[in-house]
Structure formats: C-alpha cells, structure tokens
Specification:
single chain, mainly beta, Neuraminidase, four-stranded antiparallel sheet, 2 helices, 23 strands
Length: 369
Amino acid sequence: MRWIIPLLLAGIYGLSGGPAAAAEAKVTQLLTGMDHPWSLAFLPQEDGMLITERPGRLRYWRPGQPLSAPVSGVPAVYAHGQGGLFDVVLAPDFSQSRRIYLSYAEQGKDEAGTAVGYGRLSQDNTHLADFKVIFRQQPKLSSGEHFGGRLAFDRQGFLYISLGENNRRPTAQDLTKHQGKIIRLTAEGEIPPDNPFVHNENARPEIWSLGHRNPQGLALNPWSGAIWENEHGPMGGDEVNIIAKGANFGWPIATYGINYSGLKIPEAQGGEVAGTVQPVWYWQKSPAISGMAFYNAGRFPQWQHSLFIGALKQKALLRLTLEGDRVVAEQRLLEDRGERIRDVRVGPDGFLYVLTDERNGKLLKVGLE
C-alpha cells in the first residue's frame, strides 16, 4: 500500500516529523568553487573527506585547508550529459586496506555505461594506486542519460550498485541487460552464489533487483540492515524503495508518473501492478531526488529515525520521519537557499554534510539551532 494520506498531508499542510519542526536548521558554508560535486566520503581517524566532481576529479579536503589538487590515478570518465564521476565509498576494511570504490560513466564504442572499480588511496591522500575495474554495465546504451551510479555496502560486506535504464524504458524489465537494475557483488567484484538469478541462463547473474528507472540514492538502514534506494520517476513518481532479493520494482509497467509530454508512459499498466513491489514513499510531483542518508547520530535527537534525501529540481533537503519501515511525515529544509542538493551524509560529529550540484558547487554543514 502506498502511504498516500501522510504524503498528501505533508504536501498540503507542511506536516513535519515531530519536535524538530520547531527548531531551525543552521547552515555553515564550508567550501565553494567545486564543479558539480556528486558524492563525499569521510575518512576515519582524521577530519578529512573525499569529494567527487562530476567532470572526473576526486578531491581531498579537511577543515582549515584548501581543497586539494585532483587525486591522481582516477580512471577516465565519460563526462557528457548526466555522465561523469559519481559515487565514492570506503571499503569496510578501509583502515587496513586503504581501498576506495568509485562509480563513473565509461565510454564504449558508441555509447556509455556505468562502471565501478577500486584503488588504494595513498597515506597522504594524493594518489589512487592499482585501480581495478570490477564491474561494467552491459550493454552500454547511454547517450548521456540515467546512469544511476550509487554504491552501498551491507552488513555482510556485499556491494550494491544502482544502475539507471539509460532512458531505454523496456530494458528495466529485461534480465539479459544490466539497465534499470540493482547489482550485488562481493567486495572483489565476484558474483555471490545466492544472487537470485545465478542459475537462470537468460539473466545476468549480477542482478539483485529489477524495474528501476534512475536510482540516485542508496543507503544501508542502520536499524534493520536493509538496503534502501530512491529513484527518479518521469513527471511524477519519484519513489523510495526497500530493496529485496529478486524483487521487481515495476518500471516502466508500474509507475505513478507520466511522460514529460503529459501523456501516460506507453508501457504503464497503472500504479499497482501484480508481481511488482510498491515503494514505501512516493511523490506525485517529482522533487528529482538524489543522495540519501539515515540519521542515527546522538547530536540531534530530534532527527533520530529520519531519512534525509537531496532534491535537485525542487532545491531542498527532504527529511522523512520513519516508524519502522513506514514513512509518516515529510519536512523540507534549505528551500530558502535555492540550491540543487546532490548528496547528503551524516558526519562522525553528528552534523549533516550536503553537496550542492552547481558549477560553483558548495559543501554545507547542517545542524539545528
């Protein structure tokens, strides 16, 4: 069942999630001048972080210092349209291995696709050594659209990769293609033997779930251990999902969105279609959602059990209040800034760290007054 009633209340009345509504967000601008930053990752045992810029640069920054020169050893990227350098995440054993994972758009013979690899970050954070590609989207079908590109590890150390359908709608239901899927691999890029389609000769064995449009958010729920995902709908129908083994999340046969022309999606059979999984939350008017993070820190108790999501088109930081796996309210922050929010992460200090997707991209630190 879709949670329509709280969604309508949130949209019409500005319903927020509990006592945090009375507290104003306090924003500190930490960095400016980045070129369309896409993702950030905190380095343990120091104050620094890594930041990706979509044109293909990986940077290091720590408070009190300027943004570093580009880290060397990053692979070449296809920086056209929505393509470029995407996510950066640390290996679960980063403190020992210094391994970091990158996702990016990779040029093919004619078109492009999403790729993922890892390398070893030098102790001085200036170089990425021995970069190894562990996954390539097949076939490559993108002319610059719908790459997905988010990465997340689960508690068992498996790596999940979100892949857009390259704006080729039917591919999201085609198990012979990676488009419109969530991929599950080992940290070394191998195929886990319990993946749902391993023994299906008509399916790609890396696939974990299908029926996705352009998944731009991926995060581990710290309370349940489940992987949550969000994705862009077309005109309407942006949604948040709890990813499950072998599940079909519907695109393009099940959607609450319509085409940009104002007509229905040609393949769509409705919002609820037998054999497809309903999202836990969706928007009738697309915010163009992006990176997301669960709040499980002690600094701001009012934000406990919240899911924060960036909005590109509607230029806000969305806060969804959770009761278990239910979304019960929505609050919008940072709307007055008028900036596209590309990523949000919870820092080790309990503050939110937000990247704005602009030519003069910013790093913001967000807390409560």
